[in-house]
Design a protein that fits this description.
This protein is mainly alpha-helical. The protein has a domain of about 35 residues. The chain is about 55% helix and about 0% strand. The chain is built from two helices and no strands. The N and C termini lie far apart (about 95 Å).
């Protein structure tokens, strides 16, 4: 049956995908893209809160002078 389909016995060739192959797709949950986005959003919110607090502090300092 192997000879009928053109397959030789004792052949150990296994097709492998390279980085250039489109079938070598790595899902974002494996690369950590979801976590990176969440951390980025959290840091952005913290920075905005810090900037607002800093702006208010500078305004109060100007009023005292």
């Amino acid at each position: 049956m192997i000879k009928m389909y053109g397959l030789a016995q004792n052949v150990t060739h296994v097709e492998q995908h390279t980085l250039l192959d489109s079938n070598n797709h790595i899902p974002s949950w494996e690369t950590g893209d979801g976590e990176k986005a969440e951390v980025s959003i959290a840091l952005l919110k913290l920075r905005e809160e810090y900037d607002e607090i800093r702006r208010r502090a500078l305004e109060k300092d100007e009023q005292l002078v």
